[in-house]
Every structure is written in C-alpha cells, then in structure tokens.
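Entry 14. Structure prediction run on the chain below.
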Amino acid sequence: MQGMEEMEEMEEMQGMEEGDVEIFEEEAGEPFICEAEEQEWSGEAAEEDAIGLLGDEELENAADPEEVGDEFEEEVAEAEFLEEGDELLEESAELCEQDHSWEASQELEDLEAAEAEALASKQADPTAPSMDGGTTEEFVEEFEEVEVEAEGPAAGADFLEAGNGRRAVAPRGHLIPDASLEGSNRLKRLLEEDARVPGGASAKKRRVATGGLDGPRPIEAMKINQLLRRWQLEQDVASRYVLENLRLQDLQDLLIQKYAPRQTDSRMKSAAEQISLQAISVQEAAGPSGGILDPVAVVKFRWKLADKDESAIRALNHKELRHVIQTYDGTRTIQEVVQEAAAQRRAEGSAGAAPRAPGISTLGRFLRLELIDPSAKALVLGDANLTFSLQLALHRQSLGHSGQLVATTFETIETLRERYAEIDDTIRQLGEVGAQVWHGVDCTRLADNAKFRGLESSFGAAYYNFPHAGAVSGFFDSHPFVRWRHENLMQLFFRAITVFLADGASVKVSSNCNATGVRYSDIMRAAQSNEFVHVETVPFNEWSLRHYNRSYGDRRDAKQRVNGGEQYRSQNADRDMVYSFCFKPSGAALPKLLLKRPPSCSDILTCTEACRCGFICQAESAGPLYAKHHFKPFQGSHERLEGAAKEELVSQLCRRFLAEISGHHVG
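Output returned:
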C-alpha cells in the first residue's frame, strides 16, 4: 500500500457533495466520575432575566416557518395511473383506503392478504411457484413462522414482547430495558447469518431474522419486478436491493409516477442511488419541512389545521399559547381551546415566565436559551471531545440548575487522548462542575451498559449532536449500501433512550437539514415511531449552546479540526438545525422497529470493485473517481482484485458492519 497521502486524497474526493460526509459526534470507555455538591436553584429570576437576552424582532423573524426547496434535480411528476391493467388499478384503490402513516403499521395486514392469496393458490396447485420464487407451499410455511414471531406472547403474559413494547402490564413506569435492544439484536442476527452462509443468507432466512416485516412479500415482489422491467434493470442487484427495502406504499408511488433513473447521471450516481433518492424525496414531501419550524407551524402540520386556526393561535400570548399546544388533541375546535386558555392561571415554575409576552417569540427563547427544568438530570450522547458537554454544564451552572449532567463518549479514553490533546483538561473541568463522564457508551444499546442500571426514567433532557454512523471509504453517505446504517441509527437511538427518560423529557438532535447520511426525515420518523412529539426546529446558529469545538468524531481529528468549531467544509452552516422533541409515552405497546435491511455480502460483491490496497467502492465510481490511483490491470499494490481476494475484502467490510451493530466503533 502506498502512503497515507493517497488515502487522504480519496477521502477528500468523497466530500465532493454537500453533506455527503457529515460531522459525526460519537460515543464510548471507562467512567470518570467526579462528585460535587449540587447547586440549589436560585428561583425564577435567573430565567426571567434570560428571557430578555434576545430581541423580539430577531426571534420573531427566526421563528417564521420556512419551506426547504427540493435538493434533487428531478421533479416529482404529477401522480397519474399508468395503463398497466385492471389489477394495478384495483390495488391502487385499495391502497388509497389504508392509513399510510410513517409508522407503517399496516405491514402485517398486507402480509395476511398475501397469505390468503397464497392459500387460495395452494388449494389449486400446492406445487405452483409463488411470486417471490419457490413454491406457494413454502411461502405459506414461511408466513406461519414469521407470524408466530410477530404476534409475541399470548394474552395475559406478564410483559410485552421484547421489541413490541417498553412498559410492563403491571405497574405503570416499570420498564423492560431488554426490549430496547430488540432492534439492534435483530440486525446483529441477520448480519451473523449472512456471514455464516457462503454467498449470503437466503431471502427467507433474512426475512425471518429481521422479524418478517423488512423483506419483500409476494405483492411487493410483483411490484418490484414491474419497476425493474420498466427501467430495464432486472439484473441490477443494487437497484433490487433498494426496492426491497421500500414500503408497499413507496413502491406504489414509484409505479404511478413518470419516473425513471437516468442512464448517465451528471452527479455520477448509480441507478440504485437515484431510485433511493427519488423514493426519499416523495416521502419527505409528505412530511414536515427540515428547515425552521416554530411551535405553531409544528402544531399546524401535526393536526392539519386551517389557516384561520393558525392565525388565531399565532396571536396568543405565552400563557395561552403554551396551554393550547399542550392540551389541543383534535377532539375540540381551536376556538374552544383558545377560550379555555384565556381563563387559565399562570403556570408554576419557569413555564410561567412572562405570561403576557408574545407567545411565539417567548417559546422560541426557551429553546434557544436552553431553559430546561432546573432539577432535571441531563444526558449527552455521542460527544466526541466533550466540549459540548462542558458548554452545557457551565450554562446550567450559570442559571443555578441543580440537575446532574452525564456526559458520554463512544470511544475509550485511550482513543480520545490520541485525538484530543486537551481531553484530560476537559474532563477535569466537567468534574469540577459536578458532571459525570462515561466512555464506551453506545447510544443504541444503553440497556446493555451496566452504568445505566437503576437509571430508568431518570433523565429529563437528552442531547445528540450531528449523529452519523461512520464514514465508509469509497461510498458517499447517500449510497444505499451504507445509508441503511444512518437511518437505523436514529431508530435504534430513539428506542434506546425511551427506557431512561422521564415522561415529558426534552430531547434535542442537531443535524444539517441537507445531510445525506442521517437525513432530517430519519430523525423525524424515528422520533414519531418511538412516541416523541416534535416541538420546534430552530437554526443551530441561534442556539445558546452552539459555541463548542465541533469535530469530525473520527481519526481525522488527530490531524485537523473543524474551522475553529464553527463550520464544516462540506456543509452549509446556515442549514444546521436543532430538532426539539418532547417524550410523551402513551403506556401502550410500541411497534417493532421497521429497520432497513443491510445488503448481503453477495450484493456488495456483485456491485463493487476492489483494490489490493484495501479500497472498495461502487462499480460506477471506480473509473470516473478512483481509476487514477486504484484498480490497475497490472500486478502491484493497487491491482484490481477478483475472485477469492475480492471476496475476502468484501467480507472484511461486512464484518465491520457486524462489529458496529455490536457496539464496537471502527474509524
């Protein structure tokens, strides 16, 4: 292998697109615990004074909702049905009657319909092939296996099935930590199964390993084949993988559009990447914006309010607006709730500050100035160099907060010392203000960490800045073969913290709204499916905690830093946002996480090129981007690999994915 300079050049080439290689602040090692006397809350005066630190005009302007433009070159064509037969039209009419929420709660019903179809076919001819290959008899047998796993324990069981709920049937608040690990354990089993089977696990085994809800069903397989035939991509393994990871509704949307991936893409994106981005753009168009959204804009979207109702609540003062947002549930008119709000008494504590001040700007100050519950225990996850945790600790100390801070990193203290010369001093300062510092914390597997035992339902605030599952050399973050890790990261993170948050806890996740790894819609969707209510989205540059030393969160930090902590070279800082949520558990069973299925080793092997130096990339990028240094036809350190040598290199990448889902960081 030649020097590190070539590898660094390759990494720089990966950052060509805005947001393709985001900042990712990680977690991780041995606990450093420093006890200090808790500060007593000095009263409401500190927060009353803090309310006035920002000007009304500045905050009111910042709070206006903003529509984010479509970042893709292709526009979504007007939806119209293609003339592909009465069968497709009938299926589309049925789909229109279903509830297509982001939680995709109807997947099992689709499975049951497919079972009925399979049973009917079996009666006619038990050996007839089903639509996903194999015989109908085999499919019915497979459905029965999956249904048993999906249904969980019989009625009357003491606890909800792992993965299907958080709370026990008995006393409210009694939590089941192991349930929050179900999703990551399911992915781990799938990757292990794939690693054991030469060429990758069978489709049936992969579906069972992922809970039976992530792989394509016969009705989905039929639509996948329709799309691939239309695009003449029947042999494109990567495109098939993308379609197999989509919901039934997503496939239907692609079928009724006049969309086709370009054979020659100006951005050098493969057909699979284009299809993935198109499906994402349609999903995001149906959801909330990734840009600035004030509390009223959020409520309007959630409850689909009319413009007149929005205008009515925008005119309310702080006391009235807070009451409307907290109590409106769609069962009464906005006018009735507004009248009720006017008669309410001022709330106690900091929530009652400035009751007659303009509602929008005052609520905006609470988030921007980070005026959380003074006694709440706070948890920071994925803090690469702990400077954000120190910023938060000093901020709370200045306000007289008594709640303790637990700061976590993903890496060990030894790794942190290699990257950050100042890390020991930062830890010392955190200890001086009473914060605890824990290393080796995987934010997707908190219940598996002994440090968190006994802390169930104890945190009133949690923070995760610029989440990222880790860069994979040779792949842009948006490539489907690596993006599944980013999307699953958010699902697993929000499920993991449900065990340790108090009801009503505040959760803030910072990210760039144009990021292509962890997308804003991944954050929104994961929060919603785990009972977190979106409160507001504000610009990161208006957040009082923004002045910390941002970093890459990987080995690059040992040699370079992010422009004084204010800007990241492949992202527009003006598009950095803080997404704020409130934890509102219903006490009902949580659905099993609908995780993205990882590509099999055989999928990656088919769609990539490998170099003897260890570099792997998608085949479409091998020539245009990397041929200068890699994939040479002659023998040497940059020879193009084939056969067993290539298989071993791909297996190493798959083993990395398995290590990551097991809680071991690579990079």
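The longest strand covers residues 501-512.
Filed with the rest of this week's runs.
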